[in-house]
Amino acid sequence: MGDFELSKKLDHVAFIMDGNGRWAKARGLARYFGHREACLRLREIFDTCLEFHIPFASYFAFSTENWNRPEDEIDHLMDYLEEFFRRDLPYIKDRGGRILISGDLGRIREKTRKVCMEAVEMTKGNRVHTMNICLNYGGRDEIVRAAKAFAEEVKEGSKETSDLTERLFARYLYNPDVPDIDLLIRTSGEERISNFMLYRLAYSELVFTKTMWPDFRRDAFIECLREFDSRHRRYGGLKDE
C-alpha cells in the first residue's frame, strides 16, 4: 500500500472498462484481443480492492447496446469471460470474493449464462468483497424493469403507490444489496457514463483516466483512489462528509 491509505469511506467502486478495441488496434491486433487482455486485469483489480478494504466493485462488461458490435467480437468477449471464471474463480472464492451478475441474461448464450450462474452459486456465501459483473446491462432498462416490478405489486394489491420512496425503489433494482456507487472510474479518456448504473450514480465521484483498460493496473487504480480521496463530498450540503 506504500504511503497511501484511504481517508474517505469507499464502499463501492464501479468501472467502465473502455479502450479495449483501441488498445488492440494500436498493436496491430484484432479488437477482440483487447477484450482478452481486459479480463486479465480483473484479478489485479480484485486484489487492490482487498488491499484497500473496498467491499463492492461493479464492472461494465457488456451493455444492452453492445449487441450492435460484430458477432465474432461478441463471441470472443463471451469466451474470455468464461475463461476468466475458469481461471480466476477459485482464487477469488478462496479470498472471500463473491460474484454477482447484474443484467438480463436471457439473451446471453447458454454456456456463458451457465458459467456465470455457477460462479454466483459457488461464491454466494462470501462477503469479503463482491464483484458485480454487469452483463447485457443498461441503466435505463434497469430502472424501467424496477418500475414495472413495483407497478405489478400495486396491481396485485400488495403495495400502494404512496408506499414508494427512493429507498424502496432501490429494492427493485438488480442485486439490491449492492450500495450506491461512491466512485466511478472510466478508462481510455472518454468522459461519459454511457447508461451505466444510473440510479446508483446519483452522488458518485467521477474519475476519467486516459489509461486504456488493458493497461489499467494497480498503480493506475491507486492514482484514481488518490483523486477520490482528495474530493470534498458534500451530497448537496455545504460541509465535507
Describe the protein:
- It is a single chain.
- By secondary structure, the chain is of the alpha/beta class.
- Helices cover 42% and strands 15% of the residues.
- The chain has eight helices and six strands.
- Strands 3-4-2-1-5-6 form a six-stranded parallel beta sheet, sandwiched between helices.
- The radius of gyration is 18 Å and the shape is globular.
Q: What's the alpha carbon Rg, rounded to whole Å?
A: 18 Å
Strand order of the largest sheet: 3-4-2-1-5-6
Which secondary-structure class do the elements indicate? alpha/beta
Shape: globular
For the largest beta-sheet, the strand count, sense and barrel status come to: 6 strands, parallel
What's a concise summary of this model?
This protein is α/β, with parallel strands linked by helices and 241 residues long. Helix content is 42%, strand content 15%. It has helices spanning 20-26, 31-40, 42-51, 71-94, 110-123, 139-156, 166-170, 218-230, and strands spanning 12-16, 56-63, 97-102, 129-137, 183-186, 205-208.
